[in-house]
Structure formats: structure tokens, C-alpha cells
Specification:
mainly beta, globular, 4-stranded antiparallel sheet
């Protein structure tokens, strides 16, 4: 009787240990799944910024004279697709406007343009019309780019009166405005899509001690704050509030040969991510990505 009970106790103990080990393995798998890294795009050239789409893909832009925009699957299940209809030029960033069903694009050259792509079918970027912003005095209009392939004439030279911007960088859309930056003159622009007007949201020439220099990628919080990463400057991510307060939000030290980029929020808006492109080594292979858990403002 004792031996039988002892064997039963051992079986129960072994079963409990097996369950515990199974739970441990499951937790490890879940942790690995949560934190896993994987490639969603390869075989491209000088990918720079980009932007999300409302249908949960990510646009990655090639910063080269004959560059394309690529549509990628963040989960890595689908292969990336080159979107030729969005134009062939020195891309930087893309910002989707779901209200007008267009995608704004910046061009990273000293005489670059500001574009919008109108998909034939919203949610399908395989076909559509590429347009460029044209300025005639104080009047703005959008004109079709005759040859989005940019050969032999670059897209920025195809339409007379196309407004030029000094080094287009990041772009972010929210509530009728597309905010974008230009590094050549350290400006943050606000394109009012509702009224077709263009405003300067920040210009470092307007102050003797500018808090933000080397403007690069830009994103925004739900509450209305904008965040701009610096390419150089003090290696800061700066905040621009709706009441025009500009101040440093964070600073990275000991990485003077790098630049900050890729600033963006997770869908819940409670975590910010950004990268130091060359990290502490100054090499392209030494990049570092950071997570900032806030807290971030939820009301003004």
C-alpha cells in the first residue's frame, strides 16, 4: 500500500513538474515572439524614412535619384512590393491622408518638390496619379507629373512653377494638415489640405538661439504635440506644442558622429521609438534603436 501510494505521489509530482516546464517554455516562446526581430525588406538602396498606411503596411522610401517607394508588411508574412506609380525620385518620407485619400511625399534634394500620390483605388498603390505642388504668387495648385518614372527628365523639373523645397525630410499627417521638414533651411512646414494653404510652423532663422536645428524626421502625439528629430544639432528630439512652444524633449550624448532618425509612436501612443543612425561608433553598422515609455501628454 505504501509503495503504491508512493508511486502515485511520484507520478503527481512528475506531472506537476512537466506542467511547470511546459508553462515556462510557453512563456519563453511568447517573450521571443513579442521581442523577435526579422527583416521585412532587402535588396534596396539607401532606404530613408517612409510612413505607415491606414491598411497596416509600411512605406519605405529610397533616398537616391532613381529611388522608389516600397510597400512592406510589418509582420513579414508578405513580400515587399515596389510601387512604381508613386514616382521615381530621391524619396524621403510618405504621409497618408485618409480624408482626401492621397499620400504626400517629400524629396531630399536642395531643389526638391512636395508631391501627392492619388491611388486609383484607396488601399491599392499599384496604380494612380502622381502630382506636384505648384505655386503661382500666393495660389497653390496640384498638377499632374507627366512622367512619374523621371526619365530622362527628373520629376521635379517636369512641371512649370513647381514649388521647390530645400531638402525635404520627414512628413506626418494629422487632422487636415501634413507637417513636413526641410533640412536646408531648418524649417517645419504645415500644409493645410482643407484650405490648400502652406504655413511655416518653425524656422530657426526667427530666433537668435534656435532650440531646434538640423530638422529631420517628424511625428506627432494624439494630443497634438509634434516631435522632430535632429540630424546633428544637439542630437535631440524636440517637441513643438500646439501653442508654439519649442523645447528639447530628450538628448542623446556621446554620439556626435551620428544623427537621430525614425522617430515614431506605437499604435497605442504610449511608447516612442527612434534610432541613432550610427550610434557610438560613427559607423553605419553601429546604429542603435531606443524605446521611450513616457509618460506622454494625453490632454492639453
Amino acid at each position: 500500500m505504501f509503495r503504491r501510494r508512493h508511486r502515485l505521489d511520484l507520478r503527481v509530482q512528475l506531472r506537476d513538474e512537466q506542467r511547470w516546464r511546459w508553462r515556462q517554455r510557453r512563456q519563453v516562446r511568447q517573450q521571443r515572439q513579442h521581442h523577435r526581430r526579422y527583416r521585412i525588406l532587402s535588396g534596396t538602396t539607401r532606404n530613408c524614412a517612409g510612413g505607415p498606411t491606414p491598411w497596416n503596411t509600411w512605406l519605405s522610401c529610397e533616398e537616391t535619384d532613381d529611388g522608389y517607394t516600397w510597400e512592406t508588411d510589418p509582420w513579414g508574412a508578405e513580400a515587399a512590393v515596389r510601387r512604381d506609380a508613386m514616382g521615381r525620385f530621391k524619396h524621403e518620407a510618405a504621409a497618408c491622408d485618409p480624408d482626401r485619400k492621397v499620400i504626400y511625399q517629400t524629396e531630399d534634394t536642395s531643389d526638391g518638390c512636395f508631391y501627392r500620390f492619388i491611388p486609383t483605388t484607396w488601399g491599392d498603390l499599384s496604380a494612380g496619379t502622381l502630382q506636384v505642388l505648384v505655386e503661382d504668387g500666393t495660389t497653390l495648385s496640384w498638377e499632374n507629373v507627366p512622367d512619374p518614372d523621371g526619365s530622362p527628365t527628373a520629376t521635379r523639373y517636369q512641371v512649370a512653377g513647381a514649388k521647390q523645397f530645400n531638402g525635404g525630410e520627414g512628413a506626418f499627417y494629422r487632422n487636415g494638415y501634413c507637417y513636413f521638414t526641410t533640412k536646408g533651411d531648418n524649417r517645419v512646414w504645415a500644409y493645410d489640405a482643407v484650405n490648400n494653404k502652406l504655413h511655416i510652423a518653425y524656422d530657426d532663422d526667427l530666433t537668435s538661439n534656435p532650440p531646434l536645428t538640423g530638422v529631420d524626421n517628424i511625428t506627432g502625439a494624439t494630443v497634438g504635440d509634434l516631435y522632430v528629430a535632429e540630424d546633428g544639432g544637439n542630437m535631440e528630439v524636440c517637441i513643438i506644442t500646439p501653442d508654439d512652444i519649442i523645447a528639447p524633449f530628450l538628448r542623446v550624448t556621446g554620439q556626435d558622429r551620428s544623427e537621430l532618425c525614425g522617430v515614431w509612436f506605437n499604435p497605442a501612443g504610449n511608447r516612442m521609438y527612434f534610432s541613432s543612425q550610427r550610434g557610438t561608433t560613427g559607423s553605419s553598422s553601429g546604429g542603435i534603436t531606443y524605446e521611450v515609455t513616457g509618460p506622454f501628454r494625453t490632454s492639453l
